[in-house]
Amino acid sequence: MHEFGIVVHVVDTLEKLATENDLTEIASVTLEIGEVSSVLPDYIVDAWKYLHKKSAVLTDAELKIERLPAVSICLDCKKTYPTLEGKKQCPHCGGFMTELVSGDEFNIKEIEGC
């Protein structure tokens, strides 16, 4: 479960940002997690429940998660498609020259501080 380590890093980053910006409390944090990022949102939530209470600035912070859809582009016809539906084959032209353009991200999107 690498999600625990990811949340440790998120908490460290949030504490650093709070210090740099003179925040005494963070009310909420929004994470973006790509559909094919290999990060499981449920495990992130479980790790968050344990770790955020150990930080003075995050004690009451709410965790919000936004899932980003996986999108691929066909290099032959230049059209995009939902990756999980088409996999490696373009549903538009049948080509196999495809690349993932989004959906593997993990970002801290937004922080609401006090």
From TrEMBL:
Zn(2+) binds at residues 74, 77, 90, 93. GO terms for molecular function: nickel cation binding; zinc ion binding. GO terms for biological process: protein maturation. Ni(2+) binds at residue 2. Gene3D superfamilies: 3.30.2320.80. It holds the Pfam family HypA. Keywords: Metal-binding, Nickel, Zinc. Involved in the maturation of [NiFe] hydrogenases. Required for nickel insertion into the metal center of the hydrogenase. Belongs to the HypA/HybF family. This is Hydrogenase maturation factor HypA. The gene is hypA.
